[in-house]
Fold this protein.
Amino acid sequence: MYGEQGFTAYDFVLWAEGLGVSVGIFLASSVFGLAIGILIGLTRYYKVPVLGKLLMMISEFLKNSPVLVQLFLVYFGIPALLEIDITPIQAAIITLTGNTAAFGAVIVISSVEAIDTKQLEAARSFAMDEWLILKKIIYPQSVAIAIPLVVGLAINQLQVTSLISVIGVVDLTRVGDIVNQRTFEPFIVWPIIGGTYFILAKLLGLLGARLEKKFSAYRYQAGI
Amino acid sequence: MLDLSSMSEHMPAFIDGFIITAEVSIISILGSFLIGLVFALMRVSDNHIFRTISYWYVDLFRNIPFIVLIFFAYYGLPEVGVYIDAFWTGCLTLSVAVGAYAAETIRAGILNVDKGIIEAAKSFGFSKLKIYRKIILPIALTTSVRPLGSVFINLILTTSILSAITLGELTGASKIIASTTFRPFEVYVFLVFFYGILTFALSGVIAIWHRHLNKYNEAN
């Protein structure tokens, strides 16, 4: 196969596999990352001592250093320190989850803080317990505020997944690299790979617009 | 377990890498600012074709991963007879890619300029060029210092990806240090902190600059 020129039908299979890996890792790290981001945001909101500050500090460093370096840290650094084995896919999911969590926490905090504090005071004066306040007052409103921000984050994180190709995960970008090295057709390979990411981003944007409409429906009902 | 002492003897290599990162960053910040400015002006112009081109430029480059762009440039440019090394390929691609983000930011700044001021300038008979040069752009840039600053901080973080096309900047240099010292954890932790402190310091500088430029606005 090496040195063979021109495209084969197998390249399409490779593309589809790469697409699957990229989308799969994107979905896994987004779901885990947002869940952890919400937890970090809540520890901050309820001012959990030590933990709240510590998690915020870690997420500051995750936001302010290149994801590529974080990938190297997890894939090369942690196995060397702890003397364990980590596969490229595990390293990719761990790193991207951490990164999504760091940015997700910021969104959670800002959307919760955007809620009018008078509402919370009113609810507390009615002796609603904190869990009920979180469920009935904070959650529905902050989700409506957060959706467009989360969609923006997701589109960004989709692009960030392309970096996992550098630690050897055979994702869409790595497939592009492999096929490009074999065929020497950069003007065909990279526009196709780039176009695939572009279409995925547009699809995410469309999905986001629908979610936004759904979650902000209560505003129109209430006539706000 | 954590032993940073092995880093110290490799400091010269690390600093060499930092110098390349700084050079690429400065050239690309200037490049992306100029490209962003041109496309922002095209986007707010009256010409339909200019507006469409600018719209597609921004949309395309904001939705395609940088690593795909850099591979395209690195393998594609020699095919069309452009032979430049990894350093200049990096500067070129960063300028074009980040230019899209800069264009959006500058455009937002232009759209934020008070229409009354522009009307006033027009009524004084200022030429269009003069209105842009003397009134719209200075005001727009004053308000977009902070968002432009975060775009450029992101650019600095993105330079790390140039290690994928063999450029020996900070990340590329650290990769070599990590493999010679067999201490990848220490090297990359150090690198994460280094980038972190660099960006904190820069955002501090940008915040001060922003306050300085906007000190007259506070009075209003």
Q: What stands out?
A: The radius of gyration of chain B is 21 Å. Chain B has a mean pLDDT of 91. The domain at 11-219 of chain B is CATH 1.10.3720.10 (MetI-like fold).
